[in-house]
Write a structure and sequence with these properties.
10 helices, globular, 2 domains, two-stranded antiparallel ribbon, mainly alpha, 6% strand
């Protein structure tokens, strides 16, 4: 899971969403309106913009493993009618995560979401990558022996496919690819090797792990910390590439 920067919609597309939201606000059934709208070319443009937000591999914004095929409502439209056609509430997800989450939306006692919205929050603020198992776990709250509630619920098996075996193995494979690329550069420092490293980092940005190892907690792990200490200029290039 990683931050997906929300892009702007074309004006006519935003106007269409506003029109459909007005129909729901005036009492129309959000499910029926959504089903009809989803088949239109205009909603096809919404889907295409979400795909661009997800990156070149078009991955699900939750598990980042399967291809994103569905437009999902972060806050379910059956419960939050006023957000049925709000652009800020729409995400690109795979069928598996969409079905697993369904219409459920857990809240804290004060009414705050217990799921991470990757389009408005940095998931790594709440989550931690376990490089031994490939699992995503909750980050510990600062100065506490308790896990972050939002991280804990998001990383659980209840709502998304974030930690199924195939996904965790994919993360480990990506980690190994990044480690091999950094070690190859450290063993043969040259402009050509630097370009090879840059390409490898760009090619292995699955699951947000390039960001993890070059911008977040993973910077302290081998061989990434050695690259940072011994070749700061190259390191800054990788930081810029993954930011």
């Amino acid at each position: 899971m990683r931050r997906a920067r929300r892009l702007d919609l074309p004006g006519r597309v935003q106007s269409y969403l506003t029109q459909k939201q007005a129909e729901v606000d005036n009492g129309a059934d959000p499910g029926s309106i959504w089903e009809r709208a989803r088949r239109t070319k205009t909603m096809g443009i919404v889907f295409d913009v979400l795909v661009r937000m997800a990156g070149r591999r078009e991955r699900c914004m939750y598990c980042e493993d399967s291809r994103g095929t569905d437009i999902e409502h972060f806050r379910p439209k059956r419960v939050y009618r006023d957000l049925s056609f709000r652009w800020s509430n729409l995400l690109l997800v795979c069928t598996g995560c969409n079905r697993k989450k369904g219409d459920r939306f857990p809240l804290t006692p004060s009414g705050d979401p217990l799921l991470i919205d990757p389009s408005s929050e940095d998931p790594w603020d709440y989550l931690f990558f376990d490089g031994e198992t490939g699992l995503i776990v909750a980050r510990w709250l600062p100065g506490s022996d308790q896990p972050d509630p939002k991280g804990q619920v998001t990383a659980s098996d209840e709502y998304f496919q974030i930690n199924i075996e195939a996904v965790s193995e994919g993360r480990l494979r990506t980690k190994r690819n990044l480690e091999r690329a950094v070690n190859a550069f450290l063993q043969n420092v040259s402009p050509e090797a630097s370009e090879d490293l840059r390409q490898a980092v760009a090619d292995n940005n699955d699951y947000g792990l390039s960001l993890w190892f070059f911008n977040r907690d993973g910077t302290e792990e081998e061989p990434f910390c050695r690259l940072k200490d011994q070749h700061p200029n190259v390191w800054l290039q990788m930081v810029s590439l993954t930011s």
